[in-house]
Write a structure and sequence with these properties.
About 40% of the residues lie in helices and about 10% in strands. With about 260 residues, the chain is α/β, with parallel strands linked by helices. The strands form three sheets. The protein has a three-stranded parallel sheet. The chain has a three-stranded antiparallel sheet with strand order 4-5-8. The longest helix is centred in the first third of the chain and has 16 residues. The structure holds glutamic acid. The site of glutamic acid has 7 residues, from loops.
Length: about 260
């Protein structure tokens, strides 16, 4: 996957890195690396080498319940065993919550995220009820049901009251508002291929994901937000990763445009 992160003319950091390709391998330290990770790491490093570019390692450790220092050390050990070398210091997502908080604040300000109060159980109940009435509920590319519009459609006074009363909530992207906020279609250049052989200029269809989580109850970020913020801050020019994340790229491109 190839895509350009931002406008080099406005950001001196990007202007500098535009000339040097920057690749990254970004495993989550919530489990052992598998063969797919090894392939992805080796491919990133070899493409970076061939292009005279940089190869960065980033530890995606925002899931504090499952990520551990032991698993992180195991990642370094396994990558060294593969013969890889990477730049240090390694960026750890958990150490950069401020940047994510700032990005979230911009999305809140633009009114394209909303607080969602429904628990997993509420969502399951809502969808089961709707399906019992004979309506097939739409699913995202991973097969998960799209988030119901209940919280999105809450009156502002109800939202305010719940927040003031300390009800736990997550921030979700209002997908309709977010896509309307971006002028024109968004796309990326795919130089590998997607699950159905998609290649070349791909038009992003983030709406297939519905109202994705942008920040969790206990965390001012989520996978989608952190990956976009970090790719921009690290000046990443080329994203090479598993096909399982092909469709998620549409959400990342949308967030890049919004931010
Ligand atoms: N941390 C993600 C994973 O291990 C990959 C993120 C990415 O490459 O964008 O699956």
């Amino acid at each position: 996957m190839f895509y350009q992160c931002g406008d080099g003319r406005r950001n001196p950091l990007l202007a500098r890195t535009m000339t040097v390709p920057v690749f990254r391998f970004a495993p989550s330290s919530n489990g052992a690396l598998h063969l797919g990770h090894a392939y992805s790491a080796l491919l990133n490093a070899s493409l970076a080498g061939a292009a005279g570019g940089r190869f960065l390692l980033r530890i995606e450790d925002i899931d504090t319940t499952r990520c551990t220092p032991e698993l992180e050390n195991q990642i370094y050990h396994d990558l060294a065993w593969l013969g890889l070398q990477w730049e240090t210091p390694v960026r750890r997502q958990s150490q950069h919550m401020d940047e994510c908080t700032q990005a979230l604040a911009r999305l809140i300000e633009a009114e394209i995220v909303y607080p969602s109060f429904m628990s997993r159980q509420d969502v399951r109940g809502y969808i089961a009820e709707s399906e019992a009435r004979g309506h097939a509920w739409p699913r995202d590319p991973d097969g998960a049901p799209l988030f119901p519009p209940v919280d999105r459609d809450r009156p502002p006074s109800d939202r305010r009251r719940r927040m003031e009363e300390g009800e736990p909530f997550a921030w979700r992207l209002d997908m309709n508002a977010a896509t309307a906020h971006v002028a024109g279609p968004i796309s990326w250049e795919e130089s590998g291929d997607g699950p159905d052989g998609e290649t070349g200029r791909i038009t992003a269809r983030p709406e297939i994901w519905g109202d994705v989580i942008i920040a969790r109850k206990e965390m001012p970020t989520s996978y989608h937000l952190s990956v976009v913020v970090d790719d921009a801050l690290q000046g990443i020019t080329h994203v090479v990763r598993g096909r399982d994340l092909f469709h998620a790229t549409a959400v990342h491109r949308l967030l890049q445009e919004l931010l």
